[in-house]
Design a protein that fits this description.
The complex is a heterodimer of chains A (about 120) and B (about 110). Chain A is mainly beta and about 120 residues long. Chain A is built from no helices and eleven strands. Chain B is mainly beta and about 110 residues long. Chain B has strands at about 5, 10-15, 20-25, 30-35, 45-50, 55-60, 60-65, 70-75, 85-95, 95-100, 105-109. In chain B, the strands form two sheets. In chain B, strands 2, 4, 5, 9, 10 and 11 form a six-stranded mixed β-sheet that branches. A five-stranded antiparallel β-sheet of chain B has the order 1-3-8-7-6, with no helix packed on it. Chain B starts with a strand and ends with a strand. Classes of the chains: A mainly beta (about 120), B mainly beta (about 110). The interface of A and B includes residues 42, 55, 101 and 108 of A.
Chain lengths: ~120, ~110
Amino acid sequence: KAGVTQTPRYLIKTRGQQVTLSCSPISGHRSVSWYQQTPGQGLQFLFEYFSETQRNKGNFPGRFSGRQFSNSRSEMNVSTLELGDSALYLCASSQNGRGVTDTQYFGPGTRLTVL
Amino acid sequence: GEDVEQSLFLSVREGDSSVINCTYTDSSSTYLYWYKQEPGAGLQLLTYIFSNMDMKQDQRLTVLLNKKDKHLSLRIADTQTGDSAIYFCAESINNDMRFGAGTRLTVKP
């Protein structure tokens, strides 16, 4: 099976702009989670989508949003970018959901740089 | 505390064993995971252990779990330069996953 893919791999934006990141899960996986990874804060959970519905949400402002399509592909959007949004954004897919018996598989990430 | 804790750095010589330690937070954690992240890449699932197990071995990797102390360790036998990476410990609780800050393993030739 192909792994989790994320596009683009690298992105450079300026403050105030908005950005959309894409994630394609492993075939058959219905849950997609998004994480932000920064040197200072480590790995932080953004949100999880399952069957096109946001099922869990981390502690991030409303500028961070996402959606999931019927084929389980997911997009994450960040509006009004700030310098502090510079990070590696990781997407992870699993069959049914985070934790418990369901193992997450991570994509390579999208490195976003905000200038 | 509420954090999954790991030491930040570990340096070993090629051929030696590496032991990366982790303290997790919740005794009700169901699964505990070890992920590896190489430069510029996402997280790669290395191995996981169910909370009712004490040990799991997979080729060069050995995971030890001490539930009483909430302590998890990852031992890499015969460490190679290709093992240089950041290793993340993670726990799953109900429908949540918590990650440690990662341990940067440096393998010297």
